[in-house]
DNA sequence: GCTAATTTTGGACAGTCGTCAAGATTTTCT
DNA sequence: AGAAAATCTTGACGACTGTCCAAAATTAGC
């Protein structure tokens, strides 16, 4: 077996955990590039500095690796707009900052976003991810809601929709823009920015 | 080669086309059940009455079969709420009819819907479907817009959002409800019905 | 009813997949 | 330094994939 399951020095445990992180990172890279349907363990290993056999040294099987990777992915995924909320000093600023931030991450991180949608969709067929996916989805909803709530505070009007509706709507817009952008429609991000800002005013 | 490419009797051509329909139907069945990532030609053949070899008699390769299946899928997909629009005699009727219809198809056709989202997502990675997916998405947008426009007519107020925003929002709601429903949350359909009706009033 | 064309079968192929384990390598501890 | 433990590589396995093809079964034309 391995050190990690025994009572061993801190260093050893950390190193084991660190390798798992490292391999999970490679897994995310492969998933973002190839999509779930075509991501194999050998592809993942090739993105790392190791051979394919090592994956079963740090993970019991493919499902455990991917599940771990999804959980890791979560961290990057659910605080994206908090800076915008913190920085905005007025309703107008928040509205435009939110739209601009969504457009920016659409342009910059398209591969990562399609990975998220791919995983979320995969959970419609595979039970193994479903729990984590639902959890991340909830946190994303909270993240969006923090924006809407703050906007409502600024305008001193109550929000007109539930957190669920707000999240679904913004997420739907983003997903559509992602598809268009990957299809080569360069104006997709601009449209998204405008649509997001407009939608926000309808929700409070 | 085959009859279909020569000048042959009408009957023969029809039969060839008919087999293609039949096999595409089996492909959709397999896709809905297993998801794109796990649908193999042998699985598809098993859903039909034929052996796996026959698929390459009617289709050049897997991509052509799946593309054909996606196009076939389109037909069922883009007229779902037209009956509701036609039947409704008032704004209230339309609002509740729309919500009820969405909730109903969520309950009844969950497998088919997750197939659609799976294919749409796959087109983020594979170029081959992208054109058809974008086309279907557009038609779905039109379908939703016919509901919103009719609602605006009934209430004699102008719609407050663009077709893009309306579609993205309703689609986002539906997608989220689908995930929850497949995760065993039985109240997802009821929530969807209420959210859809509420959202409609915010859009006009 | 016989021949020819069409349709279908089922096996073979070259790859790829997840998984595993034996052995080589590196690190850790005394 | 040497022994022990941890880490990594490599090759193999059985199963599965898309594709192709020769032969069997079916149908159509005369």
TrEMBL record, chains A, B:
The UniProt record lists the keyword DNA-binding: yes
Keywords, alphabetical: DNA-binding
PROSITE patterns: HTH_TETR_2
DNA-binding span(s): 40-59
Listed name of the protein: TetR/AcrR family transcriptional regulator
Domain HTH tetR-type: 17-77
Protein's UniProt keywords contain DNA-binding: yes
Highest classification ranks of the organism: Bacteria, Bacillati, Actinomycetota, Actinomycetes, Pseudonocardiales
PANTHER family: ACREF/ENVCD OPERON REPRESSOR-RELATED, ACREF_ENVCD OPERON REPRESSOR-RELATED
